[in-house]
Structures are given as structure tokens and as C-alpha cells.
Amino acid sequence: MNFEDLKSRWAKQDIHPVDLTSELSITRWMKRTNTAIDKVRKNMRSDFWGWATLMLLILGAQIIAPIYLDIPLIFQIILGLFYVVYLAISLFFVVRFIRFYRQSYHLEYDSYHNLMWFYYELRYFVDFYHAFTYVSFTLGMGCGLAIGFIAGSMKLDRGQETVFSQWGEWVGGVGLLVLAAIIVLMWIGTYFIVNLLYGRYLKQIKSTLDDLLETGNE
Amino acid sequence: MFDKQQEFLSQIEENKGIIYKIARMYMDAKEDQDDLYQEICIQLWQSYSSFKGKSKFSTWMYRVALNTALVFVKRDKRRTDRYSIEGRFEQVDEQYSGKEDEQIAVLYKAVQELNTIEKALIFLFLEGQSHQQIGEHLGVSEGNARIRLMRTKNKLQLIVKRIGYEF
Lengths: 218, 167
Prior knowledge:
Mean pLDDT of chain A: 81
Mean pLDDT of chain B: 83
Low-confidence stretches of chain A: none
Number of domains of chain A: 1
Strand content of chain A: under 5%
Distance between the termini of chain B: 49 Å
Oligomer: heterodimer
Largest sheet of chain B: none
CATH class of the largest domain in chain B: Mainly Alpha
């Protein structure tokens, strides 16, 4: 195989480029991006808006529910407290999230630096995402336990007994088991969702990076 | 904005061969080649503000275009997975048959068996880039680029022989 001959044929080959100017304007091209980086960014945007909607819905429910329902003040305080703590933790996450989102394009770097930068930032982001999810579930569980324990200890209307003293403390145990099962299922679900949204692109970048880092045995 | 867009489009027009060759090297199916071609144009436009004119437009373009090809995701995976490696060589490429230099057509088919980095090495070599320039584009040392390129050329020769060509 004569590579020098191939090189000269390469330079002379006919080209059949896509006529972009007649088919699409630059603005329309922007909507059709399809790289691993863009896929990650798109999923990040969806995640962000999902989180923002959820936070607004919870806030709205906390404001509106006490107007129509007879919710004891202690529950409102507990829910409000957990909401503020969760919001503070979320904001810490969101700041990092936005920083990564805004800096995720470095295509003008050489391939090694471009891939390496994106790979480590994305891996860090995924780890952070997992940590955030676990913290969220732990907080949710804490909130559920606090409300469940207080509710179980409150005196019932028709007598002076509590739920625990009337039905036995096993009710609390069952409640705890149900809550634990929900948490475990949500953890597993989160693992698969994070893998689906980000993990597969992380694997793609890692595989390319591995090919690039393969030693040349100098 | 309009002037910048026009300037960009004229730069693309002058260097469209680079985009075309990368798209064809990295994607086997015509639809995927067109997708990658468009994707490279999008990414070039998005990164255009980072082009300061310190190097030639084509030099900057090699980097952005190759980096885009390295992270490109095919739109419909099932469509392209239908084709086996052997099947690709048996197929008559309707679009290019009869019009194109046979060696170039065989080369494009053979490089489909290389990994993304090997494709980049062969592409930059065929574009006349030196070992030092190849190393700079990929972010590896000159020596590493030289050794990797030599191995990739050997691998490519074996693939070409296996599919029944000798040139």
C-alpha cells in the first residue's frame, strides 16, 4: 500500500458536501445538535426545569394546603423546616450544575484536553448528582419519620389514647419498613435514571479517551 | 451578526472538503455522514467566537471538526447497526460507484474498522499534517503520534488486504 500515492489521490478526490445554505439556516441547525456533550446539556436542562417545577409545587402546596385542610401547626413547621434545608442544599448543587453547564464546550482545545476536561467534569457531576439524590432521600425519610412519630404519639379525638398505644407500636415499625422500601426503590430507580441520562455518554467519552491514551510504547 | 454569519459561511465554503472528508471517514451510512456534516457546521459556528485568527482557519477547523466527530452520537443507532462489517464490503455503494477513485472508495470502507482515534490519525496524515501537528491536534507527543500512526497504517493495510484489495 503506497500511502504517498494515496495522499495525493486523497487531495484530488471529488467532494459532495451537504448544501446547508439552501436547506437550513444557522438558527435552525442549532436545534439539531447531536453530540454526547449536547445530549448531556439537554438532559441537564430537563433536570433543572424538573427540579425547579418540583420546588415550586412543594412551596405552593405548603402555602395552599393549610388554608383548605386542618393541618396541625407542628406538621407545617416540620415540613417548612425540611423544605428550607432541602432548598439550601439544592441551591449549592444548582450553582455547580450551572457552572458545569456553561463551561462544557471546549472543542477548540486539542482532543486530549477537550475529552479529559469533559470526562472528569461529567464524572464529578454524576457523583455529585448521586450524592445529592441520597441526601434528598435521607432528608425525605427524616421528614417522614418525624411526622410519623409525632402523628403516632398524638392523642386521638375520641379518647386520650395515641395511635401507638391503641394499635401497638408495631404500626410504627410497619410504617418504617414501608418508608425504607420506598427509599430503597427510589435509590435503585435513581441509579438507573442517572445512568440513562448521563452514564452512557460518560462511557462513550471514557472509551474514546482510553483509545487516545493507549500508550505508543515510546 | 449578519456579516459574521456571512463571513463564517464563506469560510465554511472554502474549507468544506475538510468537513466532508471527516464526515465520510467517521460515518459509514450516507444519512449519518450528512448528520455529522451538519453537526460539525453547528459546532464550528458555536465555537466561532473562539477563533481569534492567530492560526489559519483550517487549522482551527481541524480541531473543532475532529473533536465533534469524536463525541458525535448517531441519531438512529438501529439503522446503522443493521450493517455488518462484512456486509458493508459486499454492498455496492450506489452513490459513489463508478464516479470515484477506487482506492479512495476502498479506503473509506476500510477505515470504518478503525477506532475513532485511529481515524483521526489517518485523516490528519492524509491531509498532509506532520507528526508534530498531528500530536498537537490530538494532544499527544510527536513521538506518540508517529508510533500510533505507523501502527494504524499497518492495521489499515491488513484490513485492505483482507477485503481483497492491494494497492
